[in-house]
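pasting for the record
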Amino acid sequence: MTSRALLRRRLTGALVVTTATCAWLAACEERFPAALGNVPSDEASVAPDGGDGGAEQDTDAAVVPRGARVLGLDVDLSGQTLLEHVQTARDAGATTTTVSYAWDEVEVPFDGGAPDAATTALFQPGLHVANLVLSSEHASALLEIDAVDVSGPRMPADLAGLPLDDPQVAVRYGRVIDYVVSQMPDLQLDVLLVASGVDRAFGDDANRYAQLATFIERAKAYAQSVGAPFRIGFAVGEDGMAARRSLLDAAWNGSDVLGVTVFPADASGHVLPPASVGDAFDRIAQAAPPDKPVVIRAGYPSAAACGSDGDAQAAFVRTAFQAWDRNATRIAVFDLVELDDASLSVAKARAERQGRSDEAWVAFFGSLGLRDGTAGKAALGDFRALAHARGW
């Protein structure tokens, strides 16, 4: 039996894992720990081959070889086609993907059967599935286990109402770190983001940012004490990074990495011009603390309902690679959202988490994929060509 057939057999009947959309980073290559720049040994000697398909505009600027940079493409690790999703992303040049859950999706309600028994249990089989699939394809993972996301706190119900800097919260999150590491022993884990969308969740509440800074310091100290393999950080939106810089400073200072999301849209959910991603990358590279590597997580839809199309999405991908090349010594990771379009139910859930239900936003979150079903959009060919041209 082949290794892939054996893997499929091991996965039969496994519960599914869905990688959620959340926020990310830009980084300083010479300062970032070598582990993030590492790739599996079978990838390390790949030379640029010029790629295939599209990417006409890439000839307008010099191509910068990959070096220590890390390229990601988010995949839906669910259902019986999860292995194909990862293989397609790897064939396109990606070496990492996001595995994302809220804390209350990892530590779930549990009836211990006694008055003094625990009311929660650490149980998220998707972590084990991700470990099997990603490691089999020599891919790494960018982890996100959110104590806070754009909608607010995501702690287990029995911790509801406690501030992030409460010692009980730190102790319980330490157990989450232990559990995550135990479920993913075969996988290279580059980063753990402990919160996302905090600029939206906290607004201008200085006290909550201070609590986040304490929480991050404790999570980082615990991860180091147990030898966890990942760097600790959190994620904000690109617009929030600029607007709330002074509020974020303390939490940034305590982090190993900085996450930033870039989804160019106006308040109504209609896309900004594809060229705007280049300006966003430049602003992030200039504004990020020089000693904090940043991972950028970005995406652009193709749906007409949000003012886009396949050509605009492809132009976004080309512009993003060019901007990354311009800032190659500052941006360590570029993770594109995502390989496949989301289902209508998932798109509606994503919009709802952002506090929106209008057609444009649902279309935005539903058409971020480089494939519509199994058919590749123009942006998929460009992504592959641009990645291969740089040595991925």
